[in-house]
Each structure stands twice: as C-alpha cells, then as structure tokens.
Amino acid sequence: xxxxxxxxxxxxxxxxxxxxxxxxxxxxxxxxxxxxxxxxxxxxxxxxxxxxxxxxxxxxxxxxxxxxxxxxxxxxxxxxxxxxxxxxxxxxxxxxxxxxxxxxxxxxxxxxxxxxxxxxxxxxxxxxxxxxxxxxxxxxxxxxxxxxxxxxxxxxxxxxxxxxxxxxxxxxxxxxxxxxxxxxxxxxxxxxxxxxxxxxxxxxxxxxxxxxxxxxxxxxxxxxxxxxxxxxxxxxxxxxxxxxxxxxxxxxxxxxxxxxxxxxxxxxxxxxxxxxxxxxxxxxxxxxxxxxxxxxxxxxxxxxxxxxxxxxxxxxxxxxxxxxxxxxxxxxxxxxxxxxxxxxxxxxxxxxxxxxxxxxxxxxxxxxxxxxxxxxxxxxxxxxxxxxxxxxxxxxxxxxxxxxxxxxxxxxxxxxxxxxxxxxxxxxxxxxxxxxxxxxxxxxxxxxxxxxxxxxxxxxxxxxxxxxxxxxxxxxxxxxxxxxxxxxxxxxxxxxxxxxxxxxxxxxxxxxxxxxxxxxx
Length: 521
Description:
It is a single chain. By secondary structure, this protein is of the alpha+beta class. A 5-stranded antiparallel beta sheet has the order 12-11-27-26-25, sandwiched between helices. It has a 4-stranded mixed beta sheet with strand order 2-10-22-23, with no helix packed on it. A 3-stranded antiparallel beta sheet has the order 1-8-9, with no helix packed on it. Residues 1-9 and 11-36 have low confidence and may be disordered.
C-alpha cells in the first residue's frame, strides 16, 4: 500500500513538473528578452535588531537562515527542489507556476542565473535564555513588552527585498540584473546588556535543576551593581505564548523584580544599623525560645532557645529573640533609614518599562508599638522586597559599604557594531567600610559554621518568611538565600528566592552552592 501511495505522489509531481516546464518553455522568450516595464519586488526576509550580552554575544538572532529568491525559469525549479524542505518548496512552487518570482528557505547556497541568495538572522533559535527580560512581539513584529518594547526604535523590524526587472506585460526578464534592497537586516544594530551570556546560562541551569517551581535568582557584580544574570521561574516560550496564558503559576511574572516578604535576610541590615550606631558585636542576650512584646508572643525557630549569643552567633543561628532585644538598643528610624539607603522601598528602573518593584519599608509611625518593632527586627510585618533589591543590599556588605543601583543596560549598538555606552550611576557610601567588613565576616562565619553547606568559599544568610497568604489553612512561605563569593574578595552576589517553599536552608542554599561553585570553576 505504501509503495502504491509513493508511486502515486511521484506521478503527480512528475505531471506538475512537466506542466511547469511546458509553461517555462512557452514563456522563455519573454523571460529573457523584451522591453523593460519596471520591476517586481519579492520580500526575502525580515529581522529585528540584536539583544547582546556584555561581550557582544547575541541572545537573539544567534543563527542565520539561507533564503533563495528565484525567478520562474526551468533552471531554478530543480535547484530549489534539491535544496529546500518539501513544505517550503511547495509554497514557492505555487508562485513560480504562476510566473512570479518566489523566496524559499534552502539548506545550502545556490549559485545560478535567476537566483539571488540572502542570509537572514533567525530571531529565536534554540532556547531563549532571557524570556522575561527580552519580552515578545505582536503578530506584526512590533515589541509589546520587555526589551523588545523598551528599544522598539532600535530593534524594529527591517526588511530585505529582491527586485526583478519585468517587461511591459509584467513578465520577469531574467537576463537582467536583480537588485537587493536591504534596510539593515544584516546590520549589527541592537542593545547591549550588562548580562554575561555564559553566567546567565549557568544560573538558569542551576535554577532549572533545583526543583524550584516558582522563584528567581539574581547575580550582581559587587563592584559595579551590574546585573550579570537574572532568572525567573517558571519560564514561558516566546513562540507559544498561548501555552502560558492560563497557567496558575503566572509564568509571565518576572519574580526577580517582584517584591515579596523578606524574613531573616533582613537581619544583615539590622545588624549593620546597630554597628553603625555603636552597638558592640559582642552584645549578648540569652534566648529562651520566645519573648513577649506588648502581649504578643514571638518565637524562635528553635523553641527550646539558643542560649546566650553575641551578634555573630545570632546571625548564624538566625535567632529572632536576640534581634528583637538587640534592636531596642537603637531607634527604629536608624534601621529604616539604612533600609532606604541600601535600596529597599524604592523602585529600580532598569530600562523603559522594565522596573523593579519598590516593595514596602514601613514608616516610623507604623512601628510605635514594641510588637511592631519586634516584627521589623527580624524582617517580618509589612516589609517586602524583590530579589534584585536584596541582592543590591547584600552587595553593600560584600563590598566596602557602597550602594550601587542595579544596572542592566550598557548601551546601544549601531549597524556597524559600535556601542554607544551609557554612563552608570555612581555608588553611594551608605555605611562605613568597617561596618561592611564586620557584617561580611559574620556572614562568612555563618556559611562556614553551617554543617549542611559543603561550599565554604562564601558568605550569606538564609530566610524563611511568612507571606500572610494561606492555602487550605496553611501559610505559604517565601524562602531565600542571599550571599556572596569568593569569601575574602567577593566578586559576585547571588540571591535565590523560592516561592511556596519550606525553608531557606532546604530550598535555596543548595542552589546557591551549586551555582557559585560552577561560576568559580
């Protein structure tokens, strides 16, 4: 049966080929001679501009396709048939049979009279490493969100066309030269990001292997605040947006820029505020497992208590009651002011239309009661922040006490490949270098003392934050790890968030370790 079907289709194709050949023979004289009557234009390709990493590696347009634009002659048909996929050839065949030139994707270059080759970039090929940042376009090729929209003027669609001379009857004159009209499809115009494509791939791979269903990871350069990698899960496929529209996990949300409850990663900020106000790192308090503030009971995660701790051990054990009592040594305004200075409570513009949530830092008048001040001391209450903000705050302690506003855009690139660099914002000294060093060493101590961590060339802090959102009577938790590496000369800050997690140590610490080790290797 299969043989009969194959023979049938071969017969049909042979008849069609014979018909086309007869058509060409009948019209061959008019295709090669006659009075010129103008030109007929065939669109060969469309392309948008590039989105580059900091090293000029493209996130899009990373591959090219070969387009053959052919005149309707008896010589072009077998050449196209041998070089094109059958489905692509069939579309071109319809036009050629009508005596019109056609464009068709081919597997290899063709050199023949009546054929003009065009090489055009493919917008999306393989895996797009930055779907949330890149965004997507509408059906006409106009950017409608993300970088595609932010830089529409630069990335806008450009076309490449081939024109053929025709006689007065509108028939193609193949003996005359074709003309290529290229608006810049082959140009190098685009936007250059601070991201590193290799680091983006490493961070993304680590997150995908982690088992985190909803979450984010941000990698920052400690010395500049430049974003080296940014990942949000779940991802979406830019070629099949319809698959994600009704997904309850909200794949289109960039969780790296979305503010959620913070928890104990905030304790590094509280510790820094106390040190700046003169509280000694040897300040001691005995944790019994709970404390009463304005009639409200606050618990430590170890209900039996941690015993007597100083600041370093309080960070390591993440002792809530120590921070509740130690924070009383300074004004709540001191804590809030430092929070604002390290970037919490303020939105972060990364590009036009791409802005990190401001989150919430409570006003002093909201924290008049001991219970309210207790909540803020260990990062609970109304306090919220996005992973990008927590990463930037952590970088203050990994560095010399300087806050750098996170940066995503390095500049724009012209058709010749020259980048017009944008000037980054200057850093601000928000705490003393001594305070930054003290907090940094405490965070290194925390990592080194954590038995479950096998990677010790780092410093950082976990968090398990109550979200205030309940499902089936169970409160959802946001879990974190925010840290830096290498330990003594930090180069990168990596912040990992897991939504609907169980604990920072279980969900996020292993991801941080795996990614940090991979980057250092």
